[in-house]
Specification:
CATH architecture of one domain: Sandwich
Order of helices and strands: HEEEEEEEEEEEEEEH
CATH class of one domain: Mainly Beta
CATH superfamily of one domain: Carboxypeptidase-like, regulatory domain
CATH topology of one domain: Immunoglobulin-like
Largest sheet: 4 strands, antiparallel
Radius of gyration: 50 Å
Mean pLDDT: 78
Helix content: 10-25%
Strand content: 35-45%
Strand order of the largest sheet: 3-2-5-6
Number of helices: 2
Structural class: alpha+beta
Length: 237
């Protein structure tokens, strides 16, 4: 009976696992790729606002649907595909080719930061996150010439700012920043106040030898009584 119960339990578990695995496999089979290339190359690619890498780049695992593709290179106009339709797997890869146009009326910025993952704000507006150094700097484009305020932030690191930084039309500026770690703040611990204990030194107790007992003198009345008894005894004799 126990053996049959164990077999039934294993069978029920398998029936639960296989549909889930099959569903996951089906979901993976229904995804497709988005490939993005640009001229000139090495531009930043964002799909639905999420950084994907530098061109040329291939972004996998996209379900059927509509996507926004943005290609950014400092000194060039942004290239945006607002509604790229991605079909299910087997229907071909969705491809984007961005022919970037140089714009001399705006300014561009490339930001390199240590460590990677630094968030960049320009005039208090989020502009992007700096990738790993091996992936190159963060490309920023489309800023009007003039003074701008830059702020660089990352959790656990000190914030760095560059205020009134001048950008010139037609130029691409390179900013390099290094953020130092925030010093660890230790909670001050209350020092234990140690009160010195004074130990009283007592001299060892000295015991004086007791005096030998002295016989108490016989009472005078007893002596007289003894004498009277002796006199009476003598007279009788």
């Amino acid at each position: 009976m126990l053996k049959h119960l164990v077999l039934l339990t294993l069978l029920a578990a398998l029936l639960l696992v296989f549909p889930v695995a099959a569903a996951n496999a089906s979901m993976i089979e229904n995804t497709n790729f988005i490939t993005v290339q640009s001229s000139p190359p090495y531009a930043d690619v964002y799909i639905n606002g999420v950084y994907q890498g530098k061109t040329p780049v291939t972004s996998p695992d996209h379900y059927e649907g509509h996507y926004e593709v943005r290609v950014v290179l400092a000194g060039y106009d942004e290239y945006v595909v607002p509604d790229l339709y991605v079909k299910s797997l087997g229907s071909g890869v969705a491809s984007v080719t961005a022919n970037l146009m140089k714009n001399t009326s705006i300014a561009g910025v490339i930001v390199y930061a240590e460590p990677a993952g630094v968030d960049v704000y320009v005039d208090d507006m989020y502009a992007g996150t700096v990738p790993e150094l091996k992936d190159g700097g963060l490309q920023l484009a489309g800023y009007l010439p003039g003074k701008h305020n830059f702020r660089f932030e990352k959790n656990g690191y000190n914030t760095v700012t560059k205020n009134n930084y001048m950008l010139t039309a037609g130029n691409t500026e390179t900013l390099r920043v290094t953020l130092g770690k925030v010093a660890a703040t230790t909670t001050p611990t209350e020092e234990e106040t140690i009160v010195p204990t004074t130990t009283e030194t007592t001299s060892p107790a000295t015991f004086a030898p007791s005096a030998p007992p002295t016989k108490a003198p016989a009472p005078l009345f007893g002596i007289l009584l003894g004498c009277a008894a002796a006199v009476l005894l003598i007279r009788r004799t």
